[in-house]
Amino acid sequence: IVMTQTPLSSSVTLGQPASISCRASQSLVHSDGNIYLSWLQQRPGQPPRLLIYKISNRFSGVPDRFSGSGAGTDFTLDISSVEAEDVGVYYCMQGTQLPYTFGQGTKLEIK
Amino acid sequence: EVKLVESGGGLVQPGGSLRLSCAASGFTVSTSYMNWVRQAPGKGLEWVSIIYNGDTTDYPESVKGRFTVSRDSSKNTLYLQMNSLRDEDTAVYYCARGAVGSLAPWGQGTPVTVSS
Hints:
The structure holds 2 protein chains of 2 kinds.
Chain A: E1 3-6, E2 9-12, E3 18-24, E4 37-42, E5 49-53, E6 57-58, E7 66-71, E8 74-79, E9 88-94, E10 101-102, E11 106-110
Chain B: E1 3-7, E2 11-12, E3 18-25, E4 34-39, E5 45-52, E6 56-58, E7 67-72, E8 77-82, E9 91-97, E10 110-114
Parallel strand pairs in B: 2-10
Antiparallel strand pairs in B: 1-3, 3-8, 4-5, 4-9, 5-6, 7-8, 9-10
């Protein structure tokens, strides 16, 4: 399954919202009825960190300014009000079918 | 605290072998879904392997037949045996716990460089 993210880079003013899209090349509906679409954040020099799982569930400790939505093959990560610590690269990942696959990554910078 | 620490990376010649380790604390590796993911310099993430339900494993075509994932319950450690290494295997290798793509936590990574 090919995961395609847009945009590949985004420059956002502090306090403004940001949005990243992810499209899957085929349906991500698992045989159990769930959609296993995750979002990860990778800050500069750090390992990736899970933000969102199963489309819209925030992982433990993730601020509520991060939210996920979508269905079928189209998904979105929204940041309601960008903070300086949000700088980094964001990846979507599908876990519905092996091999797991990632989007190309979206680099978020502060304007 | 749930934590993963990778080790074993380094410089190896093309065609050589290397074994990576991932020591876990705060949970039991042998009863968890465990993954390896790599990141080539300046590039994105690529899933490399999974082990679950005892010794069930899977790999992408890019490493199938060359890489083998395993675990040692007595040491609570995950391993990745990498054989017939190629230039394109150069990357930072991360281990991560989780199933159906919900991977957390991740270790800090161990770098592997394949070069003559």
